[in-house]
Amino acid sequence: MKKILLLLALIVAAFSGCVEEEPSAEDLKTMMIIAGQDIETVKFTMVTDQTTTITNVTDSETIITDSRGEGEVNMTAQAMKLLMITTSKMGDAENVTMEMEMYMLGDAFYMKIDGNWTNMTGLLPEGMMDQQNQLKMQMEMLNNSRVELEGSEKIDGQDTYVLKVVPDMEAFSATMEKQMGSMPIVGMNLTDIYSSAEMEWTTWLSKDSYLPLEIQVNMKMKMTPEMMGLPVEDVGDFDMLVESDSAVLYRDYNRPVVIELPSEAKNATDMSTLLGMTATAPLAE
Predict the structure, then answer these.
(1) Any idea which fold 39-269 has?
(2) Burial level of 276, CB count in 10 A (0-12/13-18/19+)?
């Protein structure tokens, strides 16, 4: 059925080509969403550069963060692997680097941060795999966005359509809430944060497969203690300006991907046991 829908979309695009050289942006959006339903495996690399400026009445502090990562997803096997290195620098302080390795295998979740393995199986909400699937989230956000065709370019020798995406920020914030649902953001008003954000989003879409080869998102957003769910009387009054430039490159669609947990992770600290011990430990008199 999915292939029939894609064929119909291509036929529509072919007929529209009688009066214009290229399919419309809406045609391309439809074809990408249909093609995306048949994705079983994909590999990706991601880069994010972020500058955070915190300003209060008397002072200002800047934090520069640089993240580089790569990963792979096997949707059929419900497995994902992500490797990430993040470097942060605040003012004149020395750089702080964190290395993170993450595996999701069915309902099992393992994470290694700076050499220490943790097993968080059973502590994460249902659907965590979908929440952390970057490509699926991109498709969902695209489905709730307006698109404009800006031309054609080559990415790694492949012909692509260049699409400018104008997202519905309300739908975008709902998607981000879903993706960040397992993270400690209780009290944060993501709707207020993202509804006032400025975003530039560009997608390079393969002319052969109608799947994205690269997605770039530039965002600027401002946060206050109220938006973050923090009491002003405790943290003080401040503005936080976050400016980020991120790019995700996708490759090797539907090629074999085997994701296995490293043997060293089998001795990971079980967070459910640790949290249970903490909750039941008697208070010191």
Answers:
(1) outer membrane lipoprotein receptor (LolB), chain A (2.50.20)
(2) exposed
